[in-house]
Design brief:
By secondary structure, the chain is an alpha+beta fold. The chain contains four helices and six strands, in the order H-E-E-H-E-E-H-E-E-H. Strands 1-2 form a two-stranded antiparallel sheet. The chain is elongated and about 50 Å long.
């Protein structure tokens, strides 16, 4: 799923020649970090762009995550060697956790978590429920 761009970000990928001209004019910064891939960002918006898109990076796989909570869940679900591939709900500290910080529900699988988020927390169906995967392909 493509990420939603901010209202002032321009959705253009530029050749090196055009990049150089833009940078020379100093109106834009070309962001070549994942997932931007040579996106032109208005200079005045660049600090907020970095904060929103490049602050929560997984040190293990470089996945770009939405916020600290999602990064924490990502690390737990994908890179914790003590976390089994199949959640075990008989153990209260195992299982996939809810995205909501103050919710302590655990789930056997991602589908159950999505159902919980929709029903109990009223997440819209348009929400990117795969957000915990970052730029990784879904396992």
């Amino acid at each position: 799923m493509k990420r939603v761009r901010g209202p002032f970000e321009e959705e253009f990928n530029y050749s090196n020649e055009v990049r150089a001209k833009l940078l020379h004019k100093s109106h834009y910064v070309i962001c070549d970090e994942t997932p931007c891939d040579n996106l032109a960002i208005a200079l005045e918006l660049y600090p907020s762009h970095v904060e929103q898109l490049h602050t929560f990076i997984c040190s293990a796989c470089t996945a770009n995550l939405h916020d600290e909570r999602i990064l924490e869940l990502h690390l737990e679900e994908f890179h914790n060697p003590l976390n089994p591939p199949q959640p075990d709900l008989s153990n209260p500290i195992k299982g996939l956790r809810c995205y909501e910080p103050n919710c302590y529900c655990r789930f056997l699988n991602h589908s159950h978590r999505v159902h919980h988020l929709r029903v109990d927390h009223y997440y819209p169906s348009s929400f990117n429920f795969d957000i915990v995967y970052g730029n990784m392909s879904k396992k």
